[in-house]
Every structure is written in structure tokens, then in C-alpha cells.
Design goal:
The protein has helices at about 10-25, 25-55, 60-95, 100-110, 110-130, 135-145, 145-155, 160-170, 175-200, 205-235, 245-280, 285-295. The protein is mainly α. The protein starts with 9 loop residues before the first helix and ends in a 16-residue tail after the last helix.
């Protein structure tokens, strides 16, 4: 039953998510499968480049650094592309407009970089919130949870999409938090419990197969559950066509984001600057020689090797 001013329950949204998934599972499996294949190909390419460089130059830093510099950006871009394409296909099916795997990938390419930049902003601002005693970080992560769907459907990017997501959540932050907790418990039970039972039955192969197969199902279901919340918020709040007070609000988010970026850098800097002199003061050669002495010392192997003096 749909109420005028209340969100439908999480069980209803979960059932709807399953119904949407069951109509076109092949599309989602293809996108996720191509994503896994791309990860393997990119990883193999990076490993091949590194091995060839090491054999040609014998330079460890070059053989590790160059593949990271060349392969990592490709990996990040491809992951962002497949992620937003999967969300696009699922969002289209939730709206009654089926989108195939190829069509979703083609249509989503224009959103790849905005999605990546937006997720980086969300990560920085959310981490900045976690520095302020965790709870603000949890609230911010809930506020920005509709970002991807707004990016795909409402022609908003970056901070505007994040603020629109926050505006949709206004008055429903606590409810959505409970929904996410409930779904998280469901996800944990479905993903972990059968694998745990297989492990206890000494069937590691079945456990591995289950983990692989469940990923093809639970990933789309997770996104569809979030899409269901997005549709409910739009029904209750109406379409947010314009973000109010954008100029005054953006500086607050930027300030928290700056904290989220520079505080970890400062922590790493001070940790390294304090620990580096300690490591430099250690005589590693003497430590290595002492370890060799300990390893080369032979302990008596006989049971009665130690002779205790007789009592007088």
C-alpha cells in the first residue's frame, strides 16, 4: 500500500527490486561479467608491463611505478564506466524502459568522468565528516546516496547533484538510514551465511562458487533497492528542479571536503617524519647478523640434554 506522506516499507522495495531484476537478469550479468573481464585484462596488462620492464632494466622502482602510472588511470576509468552503466540500465528498467548492455555502456560513457569526480568529492566530504566524530560522516553518506541517479536523470553534476540528493533526503534521513541498515543485514545474511555453511561442511569449492554467483545477483539488487528509495523520495518531495541557496551552501561542503583531504595527508606526513628518524637510526646490518646468530644456534635435541645438579 502506498501512503501519501510515508515511504513504503523496505520489504516492499526489496520485492520490487527482485521483480525488476528477474525480468532482465542477462543484461546485468553481461555488464558485471564484462567488468570482471576488464579487471583481469587490465591486471594482466599491468603485470606484463612490469615483468618486461624488470627484465629489460632490472629497475624495481621503474617496473612497479610505470605500470601503476599507466594502468591505474585506465582501471579507474573503466570501473567508473561499468558502474554508472549498470546503474543506468537498472534505473531504465525501473522506469519501464529496458536498456541492453551495449546500449547502457554507450549511453553512460558521457557520465563516466562526472560520476568519478562526484564520487571523489563525496568521498572527501564524507571522510571529512567522519573525522568529526563519525556520526556526521554517516549522515553525509546518507545525504549523498542518491547522487548517481540524479546525475543520470536530472542533468545535475558535482556539488549540485549532491545538494539535490541532500534536499531529497530532507525529513527522511533517519528513515533511509534504517532502510539501509535493514538491507545491510539482509545482504550480510544472504552473502555470508551460505558460504559459511559450505565452509563448515568442508566444501570450499561450493563456497567460492556461491560467492561468485551471489555477486551477480546481490550487486544489481543493492542498486535497485537504492533506486526504489530514490523513486519514493521523488514521489514524496516532488522533482527538485533547482537547488536552493547553492552559492552559500557549497562553501560548507568544500570546507568539510578540504578537511577530508588534508587531515589524512597531515597525519601521514607527521607519522613519516617521526618514524623515519627511528628507522634511520637502526643498524640494520647488526640486526641482520644477530638474527643469523640466533637462527644458527643449535638447541640440544635429546630429551635429557640438560643435567641438573644433584641435591646435596
Amino acid at each position: 500500500m502506498i501512503y501519501n506522506n510515508l515511504m513504503r516499507g523496505p520489504i516492499v522495495l526489496l520485492k520490487e527490486a527482485w521483480a525488476i531484476f528477474a525480468k532482465n537478469p542477462g543484461t546485468y550479468v553481461k555488464i558485471i561479467g564484462m567488468n570482471y573481464l576488464s579487471i583481469m585484462l587490465i591486471g594482466f596488462s599491468g603485470l606484463t608491463i612490469g615483468v618486461l620492464l624488470y627484465f629489460l632494466t632490472s629497475n624495481t622502482i621503474l617496473s612497479i611505478g610505470l605500470p601503476l602510472v599507466t594502468v591505474l588511470p585506465v582501471y579507474v576509468y573503466v570501473q567508473a564506466w561499468f558502474s554508472i552503466a549498470l546503474s543506468n540500465a537498472l534505473l531504465s528498467d525501473s522506469e519501464g524502459k529496458h536498456m541492453g548492455a551495449k546500449e547502457a555502456l554507450k549511453a553512460s560513457r558521457q557520465f563516466t568522468i562526472p560520476a568519478f569526480v562526484g564520487q571523489m568529492l563525496i568521498g572527501a566530504i564524507t571522510f571529512g565528516g567522519f573525522i568529526f566524530f563519525i556520526i556526521p560522516g554517516i549522515i553525509l553518506s546518507i545525504w549523498f546516496s542518491m547522487f548517481s541517479y540524479i546525475l543520470l536523470r536530472e542533468n545535475k553534476k558535482g556539488l549540485r547533484a549532491m545538494m539535490a540528493s541532500r534536499d531529497y533526503l530532507k525529513g527522511y534521513t533517519g528513515v533511509v538510514f534504517v532502510y539501509f541498515i535493514a538491507f545491510g543485514l539482509f545482504y550480510l545474511a544472504v552473502s555470508s551465511l551460505p558460504a559459511y555453511i559450505f565452509d563448515k561442511m568442508d566444501m570450499p569449492a561450493l563456497s567460492s562458487i556461491y560467492n561468485l554467483v551471489s555477486g551477480f545477483v546481490l550487486t544489481p539488487i543493492s542498486i535497485l533497492f537504492g533506486i526504489g528509495i530514490y523513486h519514493e523520495l521523488k514521489r514524496l518531495q516532488g522533482n527538485i528542479t533547482e537547488v536552493k541557496d547553492y552559492e552559500s551552501r557549497k562553501y560548507k561542503y568544500i570546507a568539510v571536503g578540504v578537511v577530508g583531504v588534508f587531515v589524512p595527508i597531515a597525519i601521514v606526513y607527521f607519522a613519516v617524519s617521526n618514524l623515519l628518524p627511528i628507522f634511520q637510526s637502526i643498524n640494520w646490518e647488526d640486526l641482520y647478523n644477530n638474527s643469523n646468530i640466533i637462527e644458527s644456534t643449535e638447541l640440544p635435541s635429546e630429551d635429557n640434554s640438560f643435567v641438573y645438579p644433584e641435591a646435596v
